[in-house]
């Protein structure tokens, strides 16, 4: 049969998002959403939004939102770029900072699985750096690649492991390549590289409202870097969609990021539940990687990752399992509320009885 698809559309392997099933109510611990609702200030902004204003295009420069982000991050608004989720910003990074006929992008073999998808989509070479046996990233190996630039998720996904800031700074300072830091999980680690963007012109920090601000449904992310890097992203955006951030999103996210106290408190609860969950999992025979994020990555001595994943799903608990070499014995479990985590632990003890 004749195909009307391009060669690219016929051949790419797209990213597989975590399942969002609607068949029944699950304890949903598979896509690293925050268990707590967005801040009451964000809700007030949402509730007072003038519906009729939706007839107008949003501010293409997202000025108020960028100013709110700049205020919260201690940078200037001209150093902030906003996008429809940080996934969109990461996508724009590839054509902005990598040449299709160049030396490509370097990243770990076990990291956010969108990076290789973007490389394939934009025809950018992949320089894959294998993680060490303990799932840490070797900067020596990263330095050893010929790549035009580097992507590091910090804390990493799906391992949860965080790289201390001084180690990162040493790498950035010694490098003349762009270093893109994906800080989606930074609110649960608490040592952002944003201050480095004032010191080095080769570092771009990408963040999101999805995890730490309980706003995964609104689709908003941002990047911080020197003006030249931000301009690169703006140029790519304007080749694709000049209005990626809608008006409701701009208003709600500006209010959210200004409510520092609320999120500090809620994310601290996630961090303390993470500690409890890790200890409980270890008690029941799991090996748990040290997590600096809002999920734990764990493998069991006796049960395979697939068995745990399927057993939990049957019992109404969703976690993420990656059918991938090196990590297929693990499951990634989002840290939920205390009640959700108890539900998970109960389901697990049921599975592990046999
Ligand atoms: C969740 C996640 C993102 C995507 O965030 P959105 O802003 O929701 O698109 C980016 N990077 C990593 C490592 C993530 O886990």
Textual characterization of the structure:
Helices cover 38% and strands 14% of the residues. The longest helix has 24 residues, at 260-283. The protein has helices spanning 7-11, 40-47, 63-73, 86-97, 114-122, 139-143, 165-173, 196-199, 227-237, 247-258, 260-283, 305-314, 338-352; strands spanning 27-28, 80-83, 105-108, 126-129, 149-153, 178-182, 203-208, 221-224, 286-288, 295-300, 317-318, 330-334. The protein starts with 6 loop residues before the first helix and ends with a helix. Helix 3 packs parallel to helix 10. The chain has 354 residues and is an alpha/beta fold. Pyridoxal-5'-phosphate (PLP) is lined by residues 32, 85-87, 112, 153, 157, 182, 184, 208, 210-211, 216, 221.
Task: Write a compact overview of the structure shown.
With 354 residues, the chain is α/β, with parallel strands linked by helices.
Set down the secondary structure blueprint.
Elements: H1 7-11, E1 27-28, H2 40-47, H3 63-73, E2 80-83, H4 86-97, E3 105-108, H5 114-122, E4 126-129, H6 139-143, E5 149-153, H7 165-173, E6 178-182, H8 196-199, E7 203-208, E8 221-224, H9 227-237, H10 247-258, H11 260-283, E9 286-288, E10 295-300, H12 305-314, E11 317-318, E12 330-334, H13 338-352
Helix pairs in contact: 2-10, 3-10, 4-5, 4-9
This protein binds pyridoxal-5'-phosphate.
Pyridoxal-5'-phosphate binds near residues 85 and 112.
Question: Which structural traits does this protein have?
Answer:
354 residues; alpha/beta; 3-stranded antiparallel β-sheet; 14% strand; binds pyridoxal-5'-phosphate
